[in-house]
Every structure is written in structure tokens, then in C-alpha cells.
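2 proteins. here.
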Amino acid sequence: MKEKIEYCDFLIIGGGIAGLSAALETSHNGKVILLTKGKTGETATEYAQGGIAAAIDEEKDSPLFHLQDTLEAGAGLCDEDAVKILVTDGVKRAKELINIGARFDKIGHALDLTLEGAHKHRRILHAGDATGAEIERAIAARILKEKLVDVRNFVYGKDLIIHKGMCIGAHAHKKDGTEEFTFLAPVVILATGGLCQVYTHNTNPQFATGDGVAMAYMAGAEVQDLEFIQFHPTTLAKPEKEGRRLLISESVRGEGGILLNSNGEHFMPKYHEMADLAPRDIVSRAILEEMKKTNTDHVFLSLEKIEKSKIKKRFPTINKSCLEYGIDITKDRIPVSPAAHYSMGGIKIDINGRTNIPGLYAAGEVSSAGIHGANRLASNSLLDGLVFGHRAGVDAVSYMKNFRKENPELLPSYKRERSKTIPGDLTRKKVKELRHELKQLMWNNVGILRSAEGLKKALKRIEEIEKTTKFTPRHDMEIELKNMALVSKLITKAALERTESRGAHYRTDYPKQSDKWKKHLIYQEG
């Protein structure tokens, strides 16, 4: 198969809110190529229901209050300087979204701000229960309208190109295997999203297989905080569709929904003073405890305290999706249980999105600036992608200009050194079997409750699975399995090393928090 070589100023891998924000900022300063594994709009951003947090109400809220809530949720592991940037820049970025056409819900002329878990003020901007999709639509519409970004759908990034200590591009291929590409650029911005498809029960799109983290780690980038996986407490306890659980937004509880066990008892008040709006890790563990006590595989979310007319208007997507399962949320209780939802850790970045490799940037869920600490505050994820995608784009423009000035002939003179490849011998059937086993290992042993025994058991088998992927992958399924095995190993090793319980990381054999572990766990290949 002939390989195409293409040049650009900025190569962005990932088309969610972080990638689009970076593209919007870089597009007026050079040629931008943006790669997506699926169609434009098929990202985790699209599935973000609840909203985007920003202290936009200057009379009743402030960035300082938002900062305090974020730090409290992060359980002592947030980088305060990064959080300050998030909450202050976040107000500016949210206003810009409105200016470019994002249609957030209003009451009259005022924004209809809602409340979610661990927030002490109403600061969540939302568009029904499809906020992520609306934000993505608004930014993508601006980019497509101006025709400044070359968007390539169904193109998989395989590995990064590191030359003379700098990242100068990436190898990629078309999903159907018909084309291979070498993209050469002074700047590569990874915005590939999350990795929770490594768990059996999760809320992520099928392609959230940790590709960006794996690519960066294999290239020598530092990763951090991968032991902190957030499990969303309320996902529909019904069989998965397309490999993911239906998320029942935290904003349902913010509007008055309450959790009941199978005996009809409202149980959250006995677990936390904020009851149903407690931090997600506490709610998830409380649900597990109630399921164990009542010998059931779910609890119920009741919307009986919310007016029926408001339910249909505020949660049209959830209402429609639940009806497909025969559940009318205006009168029926929704069976829910936790599922893997978000990675607080990722590629280590500074406040401008830079990694430890010159030319390589990261933004959004694939990255970690220490914003979320050990437990992400609800609706800070979209804000993270928006703020740090923008900052990465701004900094990347300066870096690109300096690169062009100092290394004018480096990209044109680059010649790929082809190492001897050993093709894999896994059948597609075997890849599916190993993927299923890997996800089950992670769910059973590296989930909401962890112990040394389970973690060691999982790590041993994960490393065996990883060995089967050491050959050169032949197709997208093998590439994803290779990335999933590596990411699963990193999560498990970090969870085993952190011998305490903090935020979303809970060890049954080390149930207490320890000050000696008030640090980030950083890993780098080799």
C-alpha cells in the first residue's frame, strides 16, 4: 500500500471540544489538518448531557467559589494554579461560545443555570440534556463555515514521529485500510478524548480506547494520575448499546431527583451531608453498598419531585432513550448503577498544553494539568477541553512560528526510517475475545473498589495480553487492543502503587487517605 506524505502547520488528532477549540485558534495562523476516528461530531463531547460549568452569574457566583468547589472535589490533588486558569478563563470562553451561536437554555432573557453534585452554586449552562452536542455544533459550524480546517474523518492516528527530540508529525491510516499517511507538522495536538472503553460498563463512545495516552507514552511523553478513573453513579442499568451505557445526567439529581434502594428507601442522606448531590465517588460507593445490602444489581432514580412538564422539557434525550427500554421517566423510577465515565489522569501538560516533548501538545480528557485532582467536579470536563484546547492553540501558534524560523528544512528533509516489521497473527475473532477479557479484568479488579490481590491478578493477565500485541498491528482492531492493553497496564500499576484511598481511587485494603500520597504519580516509558 502506497503511503501519502502530507505537510501542514498544525496536526490535530481528535475532533471533540478540545480539538475543535484548538483548531479554531490555530486556523487563522496556518494550515490545519484535523483527524477523527469517526464522523465529525462523533465524540465523547457529543454525549455530554449535563452542561458546562462557568461562574457566569456575577451577582450570585464567582470564579473564587468555583475554584473552592473544584479543589474540594479534587481531594487535595488539584494543581491550584491550573484550576485558577480554568475558572477564570472559563467565564470568557463560555461567553465566546454564546457569541458564536451556542444556544443554552434560558428563562426569559437570563441563562437557566442549574446545579450538580459538589457544586454549591448554580453555574451549569445547559442545552436541554444535550449540551455537549450543542457546543460541538456551534464550534464546528464556525470552523466549517470559514473553511479553514481540513477535516479528515475515519482516519486513525497510529504513532507519533519523534525526530531530533521533537514531535514533527504522526503516522495514520484510513479505517478501511485503503490508505496510509505520514503527516508532517511542527505541531501535533492530541485531543483524542478518554479511555473508559477499557471497562466492561462505561459511558464512552466505542472509540474511546486510550489511543492518545498510548501514542504519547510510547513516544516518551510523561503521563500522570491514571489511577483516578471516575465512575458515574447513575447510568441506565440495562444492556449496553454500541458498547456503552446510557448516562443519566447528574443534573437530574440537581433538579430534584433522588436515589432510592430496592426497598424504596432514600439512602444518600446517611452517606453524606450533601445527600444526592455528594461527590461522584461517594455516590458510586454508596450505590454499591445499597446494591450489596439489598442483593440487587441496581438502585432507582426517582423524578417524582420534579414536575412532569419540566422533565420532558429539561431532559428530552434521556426521556426518549428511556422510552426505548419501556421506561417513562415522568412516572417510572429509573434503574441505575455506576459505570466508568472519565479519566482524571492522562498526558502530563503544563498550563499551555505543552508536554515534555517539544512540538507535542495535548488538551481535554487525554491530558492532565492537575485540574481535576483525584475526583473531577461535575461539568468541569467540557470546560477543561474548551479552556485548555484554546490555550494549547494559542501557544502552538508561537511555537510553530519559531520552529519554522529555526528549522526551515527539517520537515522537507525528513526521511522515514522503516524498521523491520513483524505482522501480528491475531484473528479478528481473537482480538474481540481478548478485548472482552481485558475489559472484564478491569471492571472486576480495577473498578470502584480495589485491593492489592485483585490488582496483582489483573496486572499479570494484562501484561500477558499486552505481549500478544507487541507485533506490528495490521488493522484498527489490533491497534485499539494494543492501546487498550498498554493503558490498562498503566492504570493498574498506578492503582497498585497508590496505597491509600483518595477521591475516585478506593482501596479496600488501604481505606484511609494519607498525606504522604499527596502527590501525582508520573510514568514515562523506560
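next one coming up
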Amino acid sequence: MYILINGRRLDNLRRDYGHTQKELAAMAGCTKYTMSRWCADGEHRVRKSSIDDLAEALGLPADRLIESIEAGEHNGDAPERSCRATDLTAAEAEWLRVYRSLPPLEQAKLRVRMEEIIQEIASGA
């Protein structure tokens, strides 16, 4: 089974998560060349199993990833990039460097824990 994806949306999502094409390719088990093709402008046919690998690498449910990058009509485009590397303080840049050095599974665990902390703060706990 193939899914038609929007390359620009995938590339924006990749950037949002702070990965290079090479890093995301390694995490998802494909080549840098393949990732480069998928992230290029236009629509691309990608195997569902590859989408599942990408979702796992990003720590997202596959259906959420598909919703974010699928080609066709959407309510809005890909998420806006939240920050650029040049917008980071020295401490934030160091945290990002450490995060990027972690294996994909540890990155996913960290993202889940960060979400939990954000929810605790938001609820006043």
C-alpha cells in the first residue's frame, strides 16, 4: 500500500523536530537519497511501511504523521516551524545538541516526558 505525501510538509515536519535529512533517514531506516526525494517539493508515493518507520522515528502515531504530510486537501498546511537554530540561547542550543545525540528511542521517551511535564504545568499540578 502506498500513500501520496506532500514533500514540503514532510520537510517542514523534519525541520520542526530538529533533524537533518541524513539523521531522519538513518532513524527511519532509509537512505539519505530516499529522504531527500521524499522531502522535495511535490507529491511522492511512499510505502505505508516506510510511513510507519518515519512515525516511529519521530515518536508520532502513524495516523498523525499521515495527516500532517498526506497530499491533498487539508485544514491548514504543515505545522509552522517553531524556532530556528539562530533563535536559540546557548543553553537551548546545548540541550538540542544533547537531544540530537540520543538514540531515536531515547528521543521519543524524552518527547513523551516533556509532554507530560508541559501538561502538569498547564494544569497547575
